[in-house]
Design a protein that fits this description.
Helices cover 10% and strands 34% of the residues. It contains one helix and four strands, in the order E-E-E-E-H. The protein has a domain of 32 residues. The strands form two sheets. It has a two-stranded antiparallel ribbon. The protein has a two-stranded antiparallel ribbon with strand order 3-4. The two termini are 25 Å apart. By secondary structure, it is mainly beta. Strand 3 and strand 4 form a beta hairpin.
């Protein structure tokens, strides 16, 4: 991204417009998506957490895989 000077004098990166979302109708089918939740515990407290899943698998099941 290239920097752009704005009316207020600030220089910030140029932001590309978001792509339009594709609409899809409900099928009533279940989405089966395995995931992993990982937690880091220090002194009995959760200090970080992360959820990991396969986004491409989800798109494939929804028949929305990019070509």
């Amino acid at each position: 991204m290239r920097p752009v000077a704005h009316a207020d004098g600030a220089v910030r990166p140029e932001v590309s417009p978001r792509r339009k979302r594709r609409e899809m109708s409900a099928t009533g089918k279940a989405l089966v998506l395995p995931y992993a939740a990982l937690y880091t515990v220090r002194d009995g407290l959760i200090v970080s957490a992360g959820n990991y899943w396969d986004g491409l698998e989800a798109l494939d099941q929804l028949r929305q895989t990019p070509t």
